[in-house]
Amino acid sequence: MENLLTIQEMSRLTGLSAHTLRYYEKVGMLEGVSRNEQGYRAYSEADVSWVQFLVILRELDIPIREMKRYSDLRSQGPSTVHERRLMLEAHQSRVQQQMRKLGDNLGKIADKIQYYKGMEEEVEAGIK
Amino acid sequence: MENLLTIQEMSRLTGLSAHTLRYYEKVGMLEGVSRNEQGYRAYSEADVSWVQFLVILRELDIPIREMKRYSDLRSQGPSTVHERRLMLEAHQSRVQQQMRKLGDNLGKIADKIQYYKGMEEEVEAGIK
DNA sequence: GGTTGCATTAGAGCGCGCTCTAAGCTGTAA
DNA sequence: TTACAGCTTAGAGCGCGCTCTAATGCAACC
């Protein structure tokens, strides 16, 4: 029916280690992963999409606790769509603010780099 | 001569806790902080600028180890200006890449938010 | 003299997100 | 038959960046 994936294949597709995939499952962010005859995890295509989404959340520095909360809402079905949207919007603006801060700080670093360049040129000139 | 600051004033000016200020000094990122008659730290204006710069580095997610390395170079004087610039440039491009990644992921989150909005409207329409 | 308040130190403790270990099971190949 | 590869689990361990604790000291005020 479905073509199911081993943990190694899942690892390759998501960039998460097998250890981390088991850990995510253990903390409750991955429910209903099926097993084959040998008791090995057998991930569906839907599992892949979900884990890839988790990876995005993680890359946005959303804490595991929050991701777990989001997963729980998702498990409860469509009635939680509004709350899920609010969570995403909250993180969206947090990350936007963080990006502004990074931009500001990058500017200050750029200034410092320019200042250093000036110093390096002076030293060169001095040597001559 | 100089007007020197207590650790509390330094804390207020930099946003770092007194604990953290002592920690930064202990790991070697703040050398030559003077003391008053009672043995209390007495920070100079130059110390303030330096700590504020450390805060910027920290906000750019530069590890303490790297910041310590940078501090050591700075202590060695102007001969290390070139190496310091290279460090800053390396982090600059790392952060730029990270910001691009954040932007991409924010886009995906925005899509999801739109998708949820659609679902919420459908539910409303369905109820009517 | 006693209390309050603010500082000092060395070192312990903590929350986070993994990351790894040990012991065990199953199927395949030599 | 034996070795190996790949998976399973519970739980220990780790690196990071703080954050806090306990014991102590000193100056000012009641």
UniProtKB/TrEMBL annotation, chains A, B:
It comes from Paenibacillus helianthi. Gene3D superfamilies: 1.10.1660.10. This is MerR family transcriptional regulator. The keyword Glycoprotein does not apply. The keyword Ribosomal protein does not apply. Keywords: DNA-binding. SUPFAM superfamilies: Putative DNA-binding domain. SMART domains: HTH_MERR. It holds the Pfam family MerR_1. Residues 4-73 form the HTH merR-type domain. InterPro entries: DNA-bd_dom_put_sf, MerR-type_HTH_dom, MerR_fam.
